[in-house]
Amino acid sequence: MKNRLRVLRAERDWTQSDLAERLGVSRQTIHAIESEKYDPSLPLAFKMSRLFEMPIERIFDPGDAEGK
Amino acid sequence: MERPDSPALPHGPDCSPETARTTPYLIAFAIAYVGALLLLRFVPMPRAAQIAVSLVPVPVFSLYLHRWLGAVRRLDELQRLITLEALGIAYPLALLLIMTIGLLEMVGALRHDVVSYLRLWPLVFWLYFIGLIAARRRYR
User: Fold this and answer.
1) What is the C-alpha to C-alpha distance for residues A62 and B117, in angstroms, rounded to an integer?
2) Which of B23, B130, B35, B38 is nearest to B86 (CA)?
3) Which of B5, B76, B138 sits opposite A26 (nearest CB)?
4) What pTM does this model have?
5) Would the CB atoms of A25 and B78 count as touching at under 8 Å?
6) Mean pLDDT of B113-129
7) For B76, nearest residue in chain A (alpha carbons)
8) What's the complex ipTM?
9) B108: Cα separation from own chain's centroid
10) Of the partner residues A10, A29, A31, the one whose CB lies closest to the CB of residue B2
11) Which residue blocks in B43-138 are alpha helix, DSSP H?
12) Chain B hits for A26, Cβ within 8 Å
């Protein structure tokens, strides 16, 4: 799933480790999500939504997966 | 400007702080196992004592397993998925290994003293690490 995590993180001048710490996950997980190799769970997506103060759909774009 | 990150994936699930805390228990098991092996091989003792010494590694390994499972429960969602995939690779490979050795033994192509359980279990242990490497590469 496409996402804007890398951009949102860069806008706040956070490293992957900074973001990982704020979300309570490993940096490996942030890297995998940013690389679009792993889609986060719904609870983690909501955590991101709260952290970036924006709706989930502004962080993640389901793209082709929508409607499947 | 975006601050540089350290290189991707310097740590795997088994190098996380959570699972790294189980290392002393793994070392304790290794000591118990090697100690039992050396005692049984080089120290003459009655049959009952041999059986008792053979079972010494069991509680030590059980403690390690208990700690490891606790550590896995504290991993984050991707690390748990990687651990699951590693086990998912290792388990059928272990079945395949044991089944193949059994068949080869049956037809006399392998002698039991060549492929004993003592030599087999470390292979099964390493299959998990093969699975771990394969699972980690998927999310690299």
Assistant:
1) 50
2) B130
3) B76
4) 0.81
5) yes
6) 85
7) A25
8) 0.86
9) 29
10) A10
11) 47-54, 57-73, 77-106, 117-138
12) 11, 16, 75-76, 78-79
